[in-house]
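In the current project phase, we have settled on a layout for protein records. One protein thus recorded is set out beneath this paragraph:
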Amino acid sequence: MNLLLATQLLGWLLVLVGAFQLVPVLAALIFGEPVLPYVTSAGMCVAIGLPVALGVRPESLRIRPRDGFLIVSIAWLLASLFGALPYLTSGVLSPVDAFFESVAGFTTTGSTVMTGIEGHPRALLLWRSLTQWLGGMGIVVFTVALMPLLGIGGMQLFKAEVPGPVKEKVTPRVAQTARQLWLIYVGLTAAECFALLLAGMSPFDALCHSLTTLSTGGFSTRSASVGAYQSPAIEWIVIVFMILAGMNFVLHYRLLQGRVREALSDVELRYFLGVLGVSTLIVLSSLLFGPGAGPDATDPGAGLKLADALRAAAFTCVSLVTTTGYATADFEGWPSLATLVLLHLMVLGAMAGSTSGGVKSLRAILSFRAVRTTFIVSGHRRAVRPAVRYAGKAVQPEVLAGVWTFFAVYFLLVALAAMMVAAYGYDLLTAISAGVTAVGNVGPGLSAIGPFDDFAHFPAPVKLFLAGCMIAGRLELFTLLILLTPGFWRS
């Protein structure tokens, strides 16, 4: 294992985190807020990271797969630890709460321990949003783009970090791939910011919400989230960009190349949009006709109500399936059928290769097809088992085995998190949704952690355990958990 190279790269990572912490300094100067907290935190990152980066001289610049797993996992932990400094130096949060908030940011989970969001310094809120934007495409993917400057090939890091069970290189060279993805990411962020400005958002709010939409993070500058603006135009803009963020970024690249038919024929995209459409219709029907829904929507005077219900259903379904976590309505008060659909969306997540969490649509497709194949051959002793196919190609058995293993580990971790929460006296709905929202990087849950609630009431051990679940979920479980196996550390 190339520990010296790993140490050098992690040193540069701290320098990078420190450099980004200078962004709130500019915001503090503009808004007339104290700059010392952010200068101090940035200085600490650089003071620790730069000597390490410059002082370590690795004998080899070769990265092996094990090195990639180690670097990625420690990178997320270090980024979260040092990303917590602005919350501490500002005197806003305790050490445990600051770490939790930082982890929720970099993992794009969106769970928060901060209350009275509008009352906090805007420079700190900008840093809070920036952590999600950086975590959205991945700090390590950004580092891969810089690796050629160090003479290092980074395919192992790219494989370890890019979300999803199947990776597709946009271009032959990994560094070029990372640059293309980041250009798309930045372009979509800028486009949403401009659209929100046109819809009436202030420049600061438009910037922060753009950063946390494209990252599917969900941190808002308002305690009532996007619902605070009471603007249908803003809500529809956010819906569109949440869907774009939930798509595989390789598809965006194809669209930019003019390969529209190829992108739109993608199996996973059709499945993702189909699930989203069906879920929205079920939730809408439940809102209009379910128990306690009120007047019949077919009433001539119910047109406005129907439009509002459609927007609320669409926004909430998109927000939860992309694991963004924004809210415009308190869906805890919705009929049970709607709530159940939303809970399933939290688990499912959007497309592989997107910035969303959850199990991802691709895994769901492969598992459904594997089950269908099993039913085809069951009861026929001599039947030849057909291969599970995806995009016209047979899926290798080891890929399917990886899918089933992921599901097993995913739900085991959700169960452990739920038991941890329940052990401290919380109700079943809070416990289960806390596990789902942490491992799936969703943000809000149900009951005590609903869309307009926070996580501040959890004891410190629960917060730390959930923070660990967030990191594991963001790194697709195995990247982090493999470090806990004895075999990983054997030479």
